[in-house]
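your task:
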Amino acid sequence: MSATNMQVGGNHYSQMAIQPVEFIMRNKLDFLQGNVIKYVCRYRSKNGRQDLQKAIHCIELLIEMYDAELKAKEAEE
């Protein structure tokens, strides 16, 4: 059996047409981007509001890092 056909701790991903991990890997998303996808995909069948808050937190982290990158690039110019 393939690892993508198994799930440890529930069945919230196995009910989806495409596994979040497949989407994340095929699109070469980074850690935080992948977590946003994961949390948004599972919130209704796992941790509800908490998963949405986790997704928001990951997005806030992405914004901070993006802003820092832009600031660093501006400082180089």
